[in-house]
């Protein structure tokens, strides 16, 4: 029973982490139809920015409890700066083009950002472990879990809930749904699609950066940390169905729980987990779990 | 007809010009008096911070001092028998296929090559060294397979293999925790992690036949998220947890596991722990067993050479002490210099004489004596050292430091590591 | 009006030029051989791209082809280069046929991700197989042709010549296929599958055939690379390798069968020079170069030639 609880807990924590990262990606794809290969770079930028800002804050002897706010602030700053810069400065000129060309542009962007990060922050690792251990730990199922992990779960629920609420109940959210559904008609109806693209990309970037910022206290922030995240985020988004929020949540949950079970019961298959889940889901639901109905031209 | 002919000619002309231009640009200059040494190590990606850049920096420090002459204790001559050394750096990132291509390119531009941290790259480059007849020195990669699977003329390795790390680790664990019953492991799921764990477990089974393996965790390389693995280790009830994690993964593991009490519940052995000690030393609790892949850094002997090396490195790089990749790079350069000067080589053309001198050579590095005792004189053997962390007065110290001489942890010539361990370390 | 396709003649001319120039460019031969091997994989990708399908899993066949060659050479002591290449192609063609039954049903991003998942599963299997060296892989013994050793020795020309001839044959055959009725169906499928079905052709069969062709070409490319480099490892099946092929495919463009090879050669050279001249920032240089190429040549490098043709 204890083991089972541990599997659940670990699965939930990992799923939350995956969801926060995947949320931005599925949002950007859903609205702009861009598969952002640089998503991992924004994750890394968020982590580095958080490491720098929190490191600065703590080194100058300020209140450690405020470091949580600084983490989020750092991520939001990354989103507000990098998002519009890239969307207006680069992507805006590419919108008419083929989906694959856009994918390539984001791939080139990923390469460039990797070296930009290296040039700004160097190759040495950054550590900000204080926020992780500050809140203490609690015992569940005879295992010790830091409260910080529950913050991660909380943020995932909050982020997902916020996006869902905005889309469903606010006017802007409904306009965004219209844009997702049909860009041309929205334009014709007078919706400022260009502004929605900007906002969406910024929010997506900020969400990736939040994922990175929240991860920073649990790891050493090193170059290349964004690379592994890209394919994980893609897998979760595809399992859930592109552009679907509930899909991303369910996809994250499934991957997290399966991986956690593998680690506890059969560690050797952990390597195959995410890809096997993705392959299986795609075999039985070719468009992902929550595929949107698509219009076909005849 | 005319249109098509001119188009064909255009295409041909373009292709021809392209190839010509690119080839001419690739033509190296004629070899000059300085000896050009290509250094291949990670300059980007996750391995740059803990390994690649410290190695590069050590190369810079060593070559600067060697070229000045009279600065390095025990090695008074300038450069290589008078010829100044010129370094050419190449990034080891990009995968094995890329690295073989880059090695071939590099071989056209330099007189010899030192480098390679990744075992995959080492295995791929090894036969090419002999094919191109280019003196190549591996300084860090750990796979025993290089000289177990084949012999080479132009290839040398001045660092010990991962077998020696993990055999010594097991011996240390048995020496310091004689009552242990269960072991567990968390290693990256690729050949380095797999070989390390296999050697450790095989040695444990020989030294303590009743030991049980409670769990073996296999997270992906560079995964960075070990929540579930740590839970599994916590519930395994193991006395000792073995990990060959390096760099960012090791640091993430420490940061995630310490608050959850894993390091208190079990004794953790970090065979590559040394690289993280400078920045993360305060987070690592007492009782953790740390390895440095040999007598390096805190385990290095107190010789004039070691003292000079540490001071020169720290002066040049802002007080950061050299870590084991730095030591191993210095070791490679000093090995080269010893062989070069023993052969009284005058130019890179004397490569054959240098090779003859390099075989079975014994020389002094900042980590102590190194003997090229395996692989028909091409593979170095060195003792191993392990110690336990203890915080005293706010600083990290190492207690219970044990040295394991080379012959105790190294298989004899011609015997594969795993066979040697299984035979009970028969000489 | 029948269209006379000049491509086979251009290919023949390029082959002759390369073979003739080869002995005078000993320093570039290895890079060119590698580019041709990878160009074969990209050629297969171009066939799929024309059909509107992007495969992020060509690395699977690239890797399997290479491992087939490596295993036969290392464990079964097969040394004949042509035999090894044929074996590599055959094994991957069979594998592609089997997997094609599943994959022919998918389109768009889901096709891409499923191919990615399958190649990563193969990667995982190879990592777990310690007899094949796990992530370190193993070395491929030198192969020979007509009694002479052609790989793993300092004279790069024989291997280069073999790669050129193999690339030529593959390109000519693929080009012929693309001019057949079934081959011409590619762009039709990309535009509107339903109409193709109305016309009476089987979209599923067409896609399956193209997938097998792409897989076989990727296997051949992997086999050539295995012989040229002399070392194989599971990284060949990793998604970043497949991603690189996609990148080169779009870089070169889909206009002709020559485009993949051109794109591959240019990509390799740009990357090598980025490594040599800026070892600390080669990713930046590569990313910037590719971005410029995408911005100014959105239809790939081949569009340069297409424009020249239109002007004459």
Task: Write up this protein.
The complex is a heterotrimer of chains A (298), B (427) and C (312). With 298 residues, chain A is mainly alpha-helical. Chain A has one domain (18-230). Chain A contains twelve helices and two strands. Chain A has helices spanning 2-32, 39-59, 67-89, 99-121, 130-134, 147-169, 171-181, 183-188, 193-215, 225-240, 245-265, 273-284; strands at residues 137-140, 143-146. Chain A has a two-stranded antiparallel sheet with strand order 1-2. In chain A, helix 2 (39-59) packs across helix 9 (193-215), helix 2 crosses helix 10 (225-240) and helix 10 (225-240) packs parallel to helix 12. The relative contact order of chain A is 0.20. Chain B folds into two domains: 35-160 and 300-381, 3-Layer(aba) Sandwich (Rossmann fold); 163-292 and 383-422, Rossmann fold. Helices cover 45% and strands 19% of the residues of chain B. Chain B is built from 16 helices and 15 strands. In chain B, the strands form three sheets. A seven-stranded mixed beta sheet of chain B has the order 7-6-8-9-10-14-15, with helices on both faces. Chain B has a five-stranded parallel beta sheet with strand order 2-1-3-4-5, with helices on both faces. Chain B has a three-stranded antiparallel beta sheet with strand order 11-12-13, with helices on one face. In chain B, strand 1 (35-41), helix 2 (48-68) and strand 2 form a beta-alpha-beta unit. The longest helix of chain B is centred in the N-terminal third of the chain and has 25 residues, at 2-26. Chain C contains 13 helices and four strands. The two termini of chain C are 20 Å apart.
Fill in the keyword field for this structure:
heterotrimer; A: 298 residues; mainly alpha; 12 helices; 2 strands; C: 312 residues; ABC transporter involved in vitamin B12 uptake, BtuC; two-stranded antiparallel sheet; 13 helices; 4 strands
Which helices and strands, and how do they pair?
The complex is a heterotrimer of chains A (298), B (427) and C (312).
Chain A: H1 2-32, H2 39-59, H3 67-89, H4 99-121, H5 130-134, E1 137-140, E2 143-146, H6 147-169, H7 171-181, H8 183-188, H9 193-215, H10 225-240, H11 245-265, H12 273-284
Antiparallel strand pairs in A: 1-2
Chain B: H1 2-26, E1 35-41, H2 48-68, E2 85-91, H3 96-109, E3 112-115, H4 119-132, E4 136-138, H5 145-149, E5 155-157, H6 162-176, E6 182-186, H7 191-207, E7 212-217, H8 227-236, E8 240-243, H9 247-257, H10 262-265, E9 267-270, H11 274-280, E10 289-291, H12 304-316, H13 324-342, H14 351-358, E11 362-365, E12 368-374, E13 379-381, E14 384-392, E15 395-404, H15 406-409, H16 417-422
Parallel strand pairs in B: 1-2, 1-3, 3-4, 4-5, 6-7, 6-8, 8-9, 9-10
Antiparallel strand pairs in B: 10-14, 11-12, 12-13, 14-15
Helix pairs in contact in B: 2-12, 2-13, 3-4, 6-7, 13-14
Chain C: H1 7-21, H2 29-50, H3 58-75, H4 81-103, H5 108-128, E1 138-139, E2 144-145, E3 148-149, H6 157-179, H7 181-191, H8 193-199, H9 203-229, E4 231-232, H10 239-252, H11 258-277, H12 282-296, H13 302-311
Antiparallel strand pairs in C: 1-4, 2-3
């Amino acid at each position: 029973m204890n083991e089972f609880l541990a599997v659940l807990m670990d699965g939930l924590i990992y799923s939350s982490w995956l969801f926060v990262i995947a949320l931005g990606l599925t949002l950007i794809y859903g609205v702009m139809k861009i598969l952002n290969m640089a998503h991992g770079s924004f994750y890394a930028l968020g982590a580095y920015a958080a490491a720098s800002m929190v490191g600065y804050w703590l080194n100058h002897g300020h209140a450690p409890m405020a470091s949580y706010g600084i983490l989020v602030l750092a991520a939001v700053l990354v989103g507000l700066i990098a998002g519009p810069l890239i969307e207006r400065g680069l992507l805006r000129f590419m919108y008419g083009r083929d989906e694959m060309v856009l994918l390539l542009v984001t791939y080139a962007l990923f390469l460039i950002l990797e070296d930009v990060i290296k040039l700004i922050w160097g190759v040495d690792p950054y550590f900000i472990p204080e926020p992780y251990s500050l809140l203490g730990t609690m015992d569940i199922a005879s295992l010790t879990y830091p409260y910080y992990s529950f913050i991660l779960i909380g943020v995932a629920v909050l982020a997902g809930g916020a996006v869902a609420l905005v889309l469903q109940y606010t006017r802007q959210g409904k306009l965004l749904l219209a844009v997702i559904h049909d860009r041309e008609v929205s334009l014709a109806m007078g919706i400022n699609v260009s502004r929605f693209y900007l906002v969406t990309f910024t929010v997506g970037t900020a969400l990736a950066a939040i994922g990175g910022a929240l991860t920073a206290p649990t790891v050493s922030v090193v170059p290349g940390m964004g690379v592994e995240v890209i394919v994980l985020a893609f897998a979760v988004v595809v399992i859930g169905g592109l552009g679907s929020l509930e899909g991303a949540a369910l996809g994250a949950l499934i991957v997290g729980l399966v991986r956690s079970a593998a680690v506890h019961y059969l560690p050797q298959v952990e390597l195959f987990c995410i890809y096997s889940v993705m392959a299986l889901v795609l075999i039985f639901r070719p468009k992902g779990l929550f595929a949107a109905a698509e219009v076909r031209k005849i | 007809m005319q249109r098509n002919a001119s188009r064909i000619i255009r295409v041909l002309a373009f292709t021809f010009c392209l190839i010509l231009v690119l080839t001419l640009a690739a033509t190296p200059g004629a070899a000059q008096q300085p000896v050009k040494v290509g250094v291949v190590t990670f300059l980007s990606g996750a391995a740059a911070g803990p390994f690649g850049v410290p190695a590069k920096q050590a190369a810079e420090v060593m070559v600067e001092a060697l070229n000045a002459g009279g600065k390095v204790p025990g090695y008074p001559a300038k450069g290589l028998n008078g010829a100044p050394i010129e370094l050419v750096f190449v990034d080891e990132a990009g995968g094995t296929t890329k690295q073989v291509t880059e090695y071939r390119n590099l071989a056209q531009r330099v007189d010899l090559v030192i480098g390679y941290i990744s075992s995959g790259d080492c295995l791929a480059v090894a036969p090419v060294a002999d094919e191109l007849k280019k003196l190549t020195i591996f300084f860090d990669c750990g796979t025993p397979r290089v000289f177990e699977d084949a012999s080479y003329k132009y290839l040398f390795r001045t660092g010990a293999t991962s077998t020696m790390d993990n055999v010594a680790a097991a011996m240390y664990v048995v020496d310091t925790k004689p009552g242990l019953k269960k072991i567990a492991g968390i290693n990256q799921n690729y050949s380095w992690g797999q070989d390390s764990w296999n050697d450790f477990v095989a040695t444990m089974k020989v030294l303590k036949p009743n030991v049980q393996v409670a769990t073996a965790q296999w997270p992906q390389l560079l995964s960075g998220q070990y929540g579930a693995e740590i839970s599994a280790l916590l519930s395994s009830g193991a006395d000792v947890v073995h990990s060959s994690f390096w760099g960012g993964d090791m640091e993430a593991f420490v940061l995630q596991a310490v608050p959850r009490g894993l390091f208190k519940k079990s004794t953790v052995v970090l065979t590559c722990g040394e690289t993280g000690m400078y920045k993360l030393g305060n987070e690592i609790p007492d009782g953790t067993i740390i390895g440095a892949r040999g007598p390096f850094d805190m385990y290095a002997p107190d010789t004039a050479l070691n003292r000079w090396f540490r001071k020169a490195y720290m002066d040049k790089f802002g007080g950061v002490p050299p870590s084991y990749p730095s030591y191993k790079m210095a070791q490679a350069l000093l090995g080269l210099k010893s062989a070069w000067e023993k052969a009284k080589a005058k130019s890179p053309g004397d490569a054959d004489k240098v090779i003859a001198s390099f075989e079975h050579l014994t020389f002094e590095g900042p980590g102590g004596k190194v003997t090229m005792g395996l692989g028909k004189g091409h593979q170095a053997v060195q003792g191993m050292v392990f110690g336990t962390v203890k915080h005293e007065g706010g600083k990290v110290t190492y207690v219970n430091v044990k040295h394991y001489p080379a012959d105790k942890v190294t298989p004899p010539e011609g015997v594969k590591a795993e066979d040697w361990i299984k035979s009970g370390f028969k000489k | 009006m029948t269209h006379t396709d000049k491509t086979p003649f251009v290919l023949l001319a390029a082959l002759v030029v390369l073979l003739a120039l080869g002995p005078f460019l000993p320093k570039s031969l290895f890079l060119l051989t590698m580019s041709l091997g990878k160009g074969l994989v990209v050629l297969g990708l171009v066939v799929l791209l024309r059909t509107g399908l992007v495969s992020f899993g060509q690395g699977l066949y690239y890797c399997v082809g290479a491992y087939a060659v490596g295993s036969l050479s290392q464990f079964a002591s097969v040394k004949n280069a042509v035999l090894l290449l044929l074996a590599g192609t055959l094994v991957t063609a069979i594998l592609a046929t089997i997997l094609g039954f599943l994959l022919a049903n998918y389109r768009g991003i889901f096709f891409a991700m499923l191919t990615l998942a399958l190649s990563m599963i193969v990667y995982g299997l190879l990592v777990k197989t310690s007899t094949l060296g796990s992530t370190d892989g193993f070395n491929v013994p030198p192969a020979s042709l007509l009694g002479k050793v052609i790989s793993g020795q300092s004279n790069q020309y024989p291997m280069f010549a073999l790669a050129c001839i193999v690339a030529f044959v593959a390109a000519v055959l693929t080009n012929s296929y693309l001019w057949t009725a079934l081959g011409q169906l590619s762009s039709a499928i990309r535009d509107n599958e339903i109409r193709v079905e109305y016309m009476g052709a089987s979209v599923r069969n067409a896609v399956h055939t193209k997938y097998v062709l792409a897989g076989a070409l990727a296997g051949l490319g992997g086999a050539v690379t295995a012989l040229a480099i002399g070392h194989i490892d599971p990284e060949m099946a990793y998604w970043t390798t497949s991603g690189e092929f996609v990148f080169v495919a779009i870089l070169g463009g889909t206009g002709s069968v020559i485009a993949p090879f051109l794109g591959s050669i240019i990509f390799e050279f740009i990357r090598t020079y980025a490594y040599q001249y800026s070892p600390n920032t080669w990713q930046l240089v590569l990313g910037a170069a590719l971005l410029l190429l995408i911005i100014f040549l959105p239809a790939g490098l081949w569009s340069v030639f297409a424009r020249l043709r239109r002007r004459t």
